């Protein structure tokens, strides 16, 4: 592919930042990749992995020649990163992020950023339960959606460039306003993670069932939840703190529906149970048809077992 | 491997029954496999797949020469199957099942069965979200646990034979009393499925988020739940109806814990959130170490994507 930016600065080089770095390199999308992260340890590791061309722990230093700046840090750290880089941004640069919440990130970053740059917040809908620079890989964003939440009046040319960048990474790009993004993500991502953390916590606390039993028999369903519940605690703490309203709304709906289901179980209402259990199959089929999941039994885990 | 039984009768030939049939054939564990299912359509399909040596829609007919009878039907149908076969069982035969609940299956089957047979209920902790004879495969039980819940006074030799059979299928075998089984499975299997069905239902009902959005962005967590929520409605209705007490107990614990978590989110208590989100990672690690799940990112789905 052809180069899209002269210089890209990556602030934060964990799972997401390092996957972007690998894709940029792999596809030749930038002339130069500048890697920046707050800790020397992570920076050294990024260097060992050869993720960039220049390395620095100073985000101010990192952005000064960059045409595209991508901030990939926990959402609670967006404000301080924006404050650090603001005075050093090159006029005309595009500044974006990958944070899992959008209204809060905008509220934190926008006040700091000069009018001379194009601030276009984003969120790639792709990830895994692992974090850090070693967790990234080429192709993470392939076939996945990326949501941009550009403020009203955003420069069309800048937006088109950022779109093209994500498309080069294999993504489809959508636009929506940040409040709607936060509501959508509350149900498709934040609630599933919170529920997973919760049920793993419940299992861990039981007196009548031992931890060893939970582990041995986890293949009957439980193990699926433990994957989400192994995700990075800092990232998910920040998501919960920064998308509170939407998450609480979805939690209330979920609990209401669960009470209804619980009642059907208590009163032995097989028909109600059968109806819900039938209705939910349709969504799974649509997700597989849309190419957003494999149709292999058990996510293809069995095929993986055979290989190892 | 060497033959363990002269004649095995399989009553029910869906995911579980047909996987057992394939393993028996593959490993030469029986001289003859008799396949029985209530519908002609499923029986014909089983015959096309070559799952057995003899085929019949009469379970009474199927069991008359069998040394091992394995009942693999929804738990709500255990009683009627037991009533059908009882008078035709060969003295000394071992009768077992694979139902996901145990106290209820025993209550339904035991009264019908003659003292001349060995009734040893069982439950292999393995499965997928698919059902029917096409869904089964060789190796489903490999590396997974199988729980037996033999009544007090069960013949030791018969128990040892059944154990050896599951071990030949690659399983590790545990024994416990049916009430404990039902409690353990309520948390490791039944609650995860109910929660998954529930959240998919909640998402489906929202007015503010469209179904198309839920599908497009499902890779951010939601899709994991849709797999469990695509499981067979009849099977899961029966599980809910037949393990009511234990499920309601676990649901109450789960809801209590969720209220606590909700409160932490409402009050912005980052420390409480961080603590829970850290504690839950340990269980995941133990499950992977115990060989009960892959440690590949995203269950290795990405590797699957690459292959297709
Ligand atoms: N993980 C996912 O599945 C996923 C998916 C989509 C979007 N996201 C979003 O992507 C962003 C990054 O997630 P990730 O999974 O890549 O995280 P990660 O692997 O944990 O990496 C985090 C990066 O941010 C830096 N960082 C952490 N705390 C910081 C702070 N207080 N100030 C400045 N830098 C800090 C880390 O630096 P050091 O290592 O040097 O401390 C590291 O470079 C988050 O906003 C997350 O919401 C994640
Ligand atoms: N699926 C899992 O992951 C899993 C795991 C462990 C244990 N189990 C347990 O294994 C058992 C079978 O599950 P499965 O997944 O193999 O189911 P399945 O694929 O849906 O097959 C069900 C079998 O039972 C027969 N059947 C259905 N309703 C019946 C009725 N009312 N009376 C008599 N026969 C009936 C079906 O016959 P027709 O097709 O001819 O109607 C078919 O042969 C269940 O008790 C389940 O709890 C399941």
Describe this structure in words.
Chain A is of the alpha/beta class. The first copy, chain A, has two domains: 5-176, Rossmann fold; 180-307, 6-phosphogluconate dehydrogenase C-terminal like domain (6-phosphogluconate dehydrogenase C-terminal fold), CATH 1.10.3660.10. Helices cover 51% and strands 12% of the residues of chain A. The first copy, chain A, contains 13 helices and nine strands. In chain A, the strands form two sheets. In chain A, strands 3-2-1-4-5-6 form a six-stranded parallel beta sheet. The mean pLDDT of chain A is 96. At the A-B interface, α7, α8, α9, α10 and α11 of A face α7, α8, α9, α10 and α11 of B. The structure holds NADP nicotinamide-adenine-dinucleotide phosphate (2 copies). Residues 12-17, 37-39, 42, 72-75, 77, 81, 98-100, 123-124, 127-128, 131-132, 232, 235 of chain B line the site of one NADP nicotinamide-adenine-dinucleotide phosphate.
Mean pLDDT score of chain A, rounded? 96
Bound molecules: NADP nicotinamide-adenine-dinucleotide phosphate
Helix-strand makeup class of chain A: alpha/beta
What's the assembly state of these chains? homodimer
User: Which homologous superfamily in CATH is the superfamily of the largest domain in chain A?
Assistant: NAD(P)-binding Rossmann-like Domain
Write the layout of secondary structure elements.
The structure is a homodimer of 308-residue chains.
Chain A: E1 5-11, H1 15-27, E2 30-36, H2 40-48, E3 54-56, H3 59-63, E4 68-71, H4 78-85, E5 94-97, H5 103-109, E6 118-119, E7 122-124, E8 145-148, H6 156-168, E9 172-175, H7 178-205, H8 211-216, H9 222-228, H10 233-242, H11 244-266, H12 270-289, H13 301-307
Helix pairs in contact in A: 4-5, 7-9, 7-11
Bound molecules: NADP nicotinamide-adenine-dinucleotide phosphate (NAP) (2 copies).
One NADP nicotinamide-adenine-dinucleotide phosphate is lined by residues 12-17, 37-39, 42, 72-75, 77, 81, 98-100, 123-124, 127-128, 131-132, 232, 235 of chain B.
């Amino acid at each position: 592919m052809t180069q899209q930016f002269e210089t890209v600065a990556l602030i934060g080089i964990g799972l997401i930042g390092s996957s972007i770095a690998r894709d940029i390199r792999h596809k030749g999308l930038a002339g130069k990749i500048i890697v920046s992260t707050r800790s020397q340890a992570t920076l050294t590791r990024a260097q060992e992995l050869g993720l960039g061309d220049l390395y620095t722990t100073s985000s101010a230093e990192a952005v000064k020649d960059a045409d595209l700046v991508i901030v990939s840090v926990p959402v609670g750290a967006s404000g301080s990163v924006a404050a650090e880089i603001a005075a050093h941004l090159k006029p005309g640069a595009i500044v974006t992020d990958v944070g899992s919440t959008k209204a809060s990130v905008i509220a934190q970053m926008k006040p700091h950023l000069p009018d001379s740059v194009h601030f276009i917040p984003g969120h790639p809908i792709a990830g895994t339960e692992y974090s850090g620079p070693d967790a990234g890989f080429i192709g993470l964003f392939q076939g996945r959606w990326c949501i941009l939440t550009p403020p009203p009046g955003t420069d069309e040319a800048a937006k088109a460039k950022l779109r093209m960048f994500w498309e080069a990474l294999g993504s489809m790009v959508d636009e929506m306003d940040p409040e709607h993004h936060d509501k959508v993500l509350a149900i498709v991502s934040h609630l599933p993670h919170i529920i997973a953390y919760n049920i793993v916590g419940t299992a861990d606390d039981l007196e009548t069932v031992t931890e060893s039993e939970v582990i041995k028999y986890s293949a009957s369903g439980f193990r699926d939840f433990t994957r989400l519940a192994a995700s990075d605690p800092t990232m998910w703490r920040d998501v919960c703190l920064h998308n509170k309203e939407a998450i609480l709304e979805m939690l209330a709906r979920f609990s209401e529906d669960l009470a209804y289901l619980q009642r059907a179980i208590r009163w032995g209402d097989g028909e109600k149970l059968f109806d819900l259990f039938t209705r939910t199959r349709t969504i799974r089929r649509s997700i597989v048809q849309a190419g957003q999941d494999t149709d292999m039994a058990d996510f293809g885990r069995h095929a993986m077992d055979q290989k190892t």
